[in-house]
Design goal:
Blueprint lengths: L4 H13 L1 H15 L4 H9 L4 E3 L10 E3 H14 L2 H12 L5 E4 L2 E4 L4 E2 L4 E2 L7 H5 L14 E3 L9 H13 L4 E2 L6 E2 L1 E3 H9 L2 H15 L1 H10 L13
Antiparallel strand pairs: 1-7, 2-10, 3-4, 5-6, 8-9
Protein backbone atom coordinates (compact mmCIF):
# COMPACT_ATOMS: atom_id res chain seq x y z
CA UNK A 1 0.00 0.00 0.00
CA UNK A 2 1.32 3.42 -1.00
CA UNK A 3 0.81 6.61 1.00
CA UNK A 4 -1.30 9.24 -0.77
CA UNK A 5 1.34 11.99 -0.64
CA UNK A 6 -0.95 14.57 -2.26
CA UNK A 7 -3.54 14.10 0.48
CA UNK A 8 -0.82 14.19 3.12
CA UNK A 9 0.45 17.50 1.73
CA UNK A 10 -3.04 19.03 1.73
CA UNK A 11 -3.47 18.08 5.39
CA UNK A 12 -0.05 19.55 6.20
CA UNK A 13 -0.91 22.92 4.63
CA UNK A 14 -4.43 23.03 6.09
CA UNK A 15 -3.25 22.13 9.61
CA UNK A 16 -1.09 25.27 9.72
CA UNK A 17 -3.47 27.58 7.89
CA UNK A 18 -6.56 26.60 9.91
CA UNK A 19 -4.97 25.55 13.20
CA UNK A 20 -7.12 27.68 15.50
CA UNK A 21 -10.47 26.93 13.88
CA UNK A 22 -9.57 23.23 13.68
CA UNK A 23 -8.66 23.14 17.37
CA UNK A 24 -11.91 24.84 18.35
CA UNK A 25 -13.96 22.34 16.38
CA UNK A 26 -12.09 19.32 17.78
CA UNK A 27 -12.49 20.50 21.38
CA UNK A 28 -16.14 21.41 20.94
CA UNK A 29 -16.90 17.91 19.62
CA UNK A 30 -15.60 16.32 22.82
CA UNK A 31 -17.36 18.90 25.00
CA UNK A 32 -20.62 18.14 23.18
CA UNK A 33 -20.03 14.43 23.78
CA UNK A 34 -20.49 15.17 27.47
CA UNK A 35 -19.77 12.67 30.25
CA UNK A 36 -21.40 9.73 28.48
CA UNK A 37 -19.41 6.58 29.14
CA UNK A 38 -16.58 8.25 31.04
CA UNK A 39 -17.37 6.68 34.42
CA UNK A 40 -17.86 3.30 32.76
CA UNK A 41 -14.49 3.55 31.07
CA UNK A 42 -12.70 4.45 34.29
CA UNK A 43 -14.41 1.61 36.20
CA UNK A 44 -13.41 -0.94 33.57
CA UNK A 45 -9.80 0.23 33.58
CA UNK A 46 -9.70 0.00 37.39
CA UNK A 47 -10.33 -3.74 37.07
CA UNK A 48 -6.92 -4.22 35.47
CA UNK A 49 -3.83 -4.88 37.61
CA UNK A 50 -1.73 -1.73 38.21
CA UNK A 51 1.68 -1.90 36.54
CA UNK A 52 4.78 0.12 35.82
CA UNK A 53 7.19 -0.14 32.92
CA UNK A 54 10.80 0.66 32.17
CA UNK A 55 9.81 3.48 29.77
CA UNK A 56 11.97 2.19 26.95
CA UNK A 57 9.35 3.53 24.54
CA UNK A 58 9.57 0.66 22.05
CA UNK A 59 5.82 0.06 22.20
CA UNK A 60 4.90 3.77 22.12
CA UNK A 61 3.53 3.81 18.61
CA UNK A 62 0.14 4.97 17.42
CA UNK A 63 -2.40 2.35 18.50
CA UNK A 64 -6.05 1.80 17.76
CA UNK A 65 -8.49 3.05 20.38
CA UNK A 66 -12.24 3.39 20.85
CA UNK A 67 -14.11 6.67 20.33
CA UNK A 68 -14.97 6.66 24.03
CA UNK A 69 -11.26 6.59 24.87
CA UNK A 70 -10.58 9.37 22.38
CA UNK A 71 -13.05 11.68 24.11
CA UNK A 72 -11.63 10.72 27.52
CA UNK A 73 -8.13 11.75 26.38
CA UNK A 74 -9.28 15.01 24.79
CA UNK A 75 -11.29 16.00 27.86
CA UNK A 76 -8.31 15.28 30.09
CA UNK A 77 -6.04 17.38 27.86
CA UNK A 78 -8.53 20.23 28.03
CA UNK A 79 -8.43 20.30 31.83
CA UNK A 80 -4.67 19.91 32.15
CA UNK A 81 -3.15 21.80 29.22
CA UNK A 82 -2.99 25.46 28.31
CA UNK A 83 -4.30 26.60 24.87
CA UNK A 84 -0.84 26.78 23.27
CA UNK A 85 -0.04 23.23 24.32
CA UNK A 86 -3.38 21.97 23.04
CA UNK A 87 -2.72 23.68 19.75
CA UNK A 88 0.67 21.94 19.46
CA UNK A 89 -0.88 18.56 20.23
CA UNK A 90 -3.51 18.75 17.53
CA UNK A 91 -1.22 20.20 14.90
CA UNK A 92 1.12 17.28 15.67
CA UNK A 93 -1.83 14.88 15.31
CA UNK A 94 -2.39 16.18 11.78
CA UNK A 95 1.33 16.27 10.93
CA UNK A 96 1.66 12.51 10.65
CA UNK A 97 4.59 12.91 8.27
CA UNK A 98 6.74 14.14 11.19
CA UNK A 99 6.13 11.01 13.25
CA UNK A 100 6.98 8.29 10.75
CA UNK A 101 9.52 5.85 12.11
CA UNK A 102 11.09 2.47 11.48
CA UNK A 103 10.98 -0.02 14.34
CA UNK A 104 13.13 -2.95 13.39
CA UNK A 105 11.91 -4.08 9.99
CA UNK A 106 8.53 -2.40 10.39
CA UNK A 107 7.08 1.02 9.64
CA UNK A 108 5.28 2.71 12.51
CA UNK A 109 3.62 6.01 13.36
CA UNK A 110 5.08 7.13 16.68
CA UNK A 111 2.65 7.96 19.47
CA UNK A 112 1.60 11.57 19.65
CA UNK A 113 1.81 11.53 23.45
CA UNK A 114 5.25 10.02 23.95
CA UNK A 115 7.92 12.52 25.02
CA UNK A 116 11.09 10.72 23.97
CA UNK A 117 13.36 13.27 25.66
CA UNK A 118 11.88 12.91 29.14
CA UNK A 119 10.63 9.34 28.56
CA UNK A 120 7.19 10.32 29.79
CA UNK A 121 3.69 9.39 28.64
CA UNK A 122 1.81 12.69 28.59
CA UNK A 123 -1.57 11.02 29.04
CA UNK A 124 -0.57 8.22 31.39
CA UNK A 125 -3.57 8.60 33.72
CA UNK A 126 -6.03 8.23 30.83
CA UNK A 127 -3.95 6.03 28.52
CA UNK A 128 -5.98 3.72 26.27
CA UNK A 129 -7.01 0.17 27.09
CA UNK A 130 -4.51 -1.27 24.60
CA UNK A 131 -1.64 0.40 26.49
CA UNK A 132 -2.92 -0.84 29.85
CA UNK A 133 -3.18 -4.50 28.88
CA UNK A 134 0.20 -4.61 27.14
CA UNK A 135 2.63 -6.62 29.24
CA UNK A 136 0.09 -7.95 31.74
CA UNK A 137 0.73 -11.43 33.11
CA UNK A 138 -1.23 -13.94 31.03
CA UNK A 139 -2.66 -17.34 31.96
CA UNK A 140 0.38 -19.11 30.55
CA UNK A 141 2.56 -16.92 32.83
CA UNK A 142 4.06 -14.92 29.95
CA UNK A 143 4.14 -11.20 29.13
CA UNK A 144 4.54 -9.38 25.82
CA UNK A 145 7.28 -7.23 27.38
CA UNK A 146 9.75 -7.93 30.18
CA UNK A 147 9.89 -4.20 30.99
CA UNK A 148 6.44 -4.38 32.60
CA UNK A 149 6.18 -5.06 36.34
CA UNK A 150 3.12 -5.52 38.55
CA UNK A 151 2.58 -3.11 41.43
CA UNK A 152 0.70 -5.71 43.48
CA UNK A 153 2.01 -8.95 44.95
CA UNK A 154 1.42 -11.69 44.13
CA UNK A 155 1.01 -10.61 40.50
CA UNK A 156 -2.52 -10.93 39.16
CA UNK A 157 -3.06 -13.09 36.11
CA UNK A 158 -5.46 -11.78 33.48
CA UNK A 159 -7.43 -14.14 31.27
CA UNK A 160 -8.31 -13.59 27.63
CA UNK A 161 -11.96 -13.97 28.59
CA UNK A 162 -11.70 -11.13 31.10
CA UNK A 163 -10.02 -8.83 28.59
CA UNK A 164 -12.60 -9.64 25.93
CA UNK A 165 -15.48 -8.92 28.32
CA UNK A 166 -14.01 -5.58 29.40
CA UNK A 167 -13.40 -4.48 25.83
CA UNK A 168 -16.87 -5.62 24.76
CA UNK A 169 -18.39 -3.14 27.22
CA UNK A 170 -16.26 -0.31 25.81
CA UNK A 171 -17.18 -1.35 22.28
CA UNK A 172 -20.90 -1.20 23.07
CA UNK A 173 -20.53 2.51 23.83
CA UNK A 174 -18.22 3.48 20.95
CA UNK A 175 -18.73 4.39 17.31
CA UNK A 176 -17.97 1.93 14.54
CA UNK A 177 -17.30 2.16 10.80
CA UNK A 178 -16.68 -0.15 7.85
CA UNK A 179 -13.24 0.57 6.37
CA UNK A 180 -13.49 -1.50 3.18
CA UNK A 181 -16.75 -2.85 1.68
CA UNK A 182 -17.55 -6.30 2.98
CA UNK A 183 -15.00 -6.31 5.82
CA UNK A 184 -17.48 -5.53 8.58
CA UNK A 185 -17.75 -2.69 11.08
CA UNK A 186 -14.89 -2.07 13.50
CA UNK A 187 -14.79 0.26 16.50
CA UNK A 188 -11.08 0.82 17.04
CA UNK A 189 -8.98 3.33 15.10
CA UNK A 190 -5.83 5.38 15.76
CA UNK A 191 -6.22 8.63 17.70
CA UNK A 192 -5.49 10.50 14.46
CA UNK A 193 -8.51 8.92 12.77
CA UNK A 194 -10.83 10.22 15.48
CA UNK A 195 -9.34 13.71 15.14
CA UNK A 196 -10.27 13.76 11.45
CA UNK A 197 -13.63 12.12 12.11
CA UNK A 198 -14.70 14.97 14.41
CA UNK A 199 -12.91 17.64 12.42
CA UNK A 200 -14.31 16.73 9.01
CA UNK A 201 -16.56 13.69 8.61
CA UNK A 202 -16.45 9.90 8.98
CA UNK A 203 -16.08 9.55 5.21
CA UNK A 204 -13.06 11.89 5.05
CA UNK A 205 -11.52 10.25 8.12
CA UNK A 206 -11.90 6.81 6.52
CA UNK A 207 -10.18 8.07 3.36
CA UNK A 208 -7.25 9.36 5.44
CA UNK A 209 -7.18 6.08 7.35
CA UNK A 210 -7.08 3.99 4.16
CA UNK A 211 -4.68 6.17 2.17
CA UNK A 212 -2.29 7.44 4.86
CA UNK A 213 -2.58 5.72 8.24
CA UNK A 214 -2.71 2.13 6.99
CA UNK A 215 0.31 2.48 4.65
CA UNK A 216 2.27 4.20 7.46
CA UNK A 217 1.92 1.22 9.80
CA UNK A 218 3.17 -2.26 8.93
CA UNK A 219 0.81 -3.94 11.46
CA UNK A 220 -2.22 -2.09 10.01
CA UNK A 221 -1.12 -2.88 6.46
CA UNK A 222 -0.83 -6.58 7.25
CA UNK A 223 -4.15 -6.60 9.11
CA UNK A 224 -6.09 -5.07 6.25
CA UNK A 225 -4.37 -7.07 3.54
CA UNK A 226 -5.53 -10.18 5.34
CA UNK A 227 -9.02 -8.82 5.95
CA UNK A 228 -9.50 -7.94 2.28
CA UNK A 229 -8.79 -11.47 1.11
CA UNK A 230 -12.18 -12.97 0.39
CA UNK A 231 -12.77 -16.55 1.43
CA UNK A 232 -13.50 -18.91 -1.50
CA UNK A 233 -17.15 -19.86 -1.95
CA UNK A 234 -17.85 -23.43 -0.82
CA UNK A 235 -20.74 -25.71 -1.71
CA UNK A 236 -21.75 -25.70 1.94
CA UNK A 237 -22.40 -21.96 1.73
CA UNK A 238 -25.56 -22.78 -0.25
CA UNK A 239 -26.87 -25.37 2.19
CA UNK A 240 -29.78 -24.51 4.48
Amino acid sequence: MQINTDLLQKIKVASVKNADSYLEKILCASVDHGNFGMDLLDRLRDQLPPTKCGNCGKCCNSISIYSLEYHRIVRDLMTGSDPSRLRRFFIAAMRMDLRQAEVGAEKRLRCLFRDDQTKVCLIHQVRPFACRIFGLLKEDMTRECDQVEDLVYPPRVVSEKMLEELQAKILENSEGYEVFPGTGVIHFFPFEFWVFRYLFSPERALQIYREILIPMSTPLTKFWQEKRKLEPIKDSDFEI
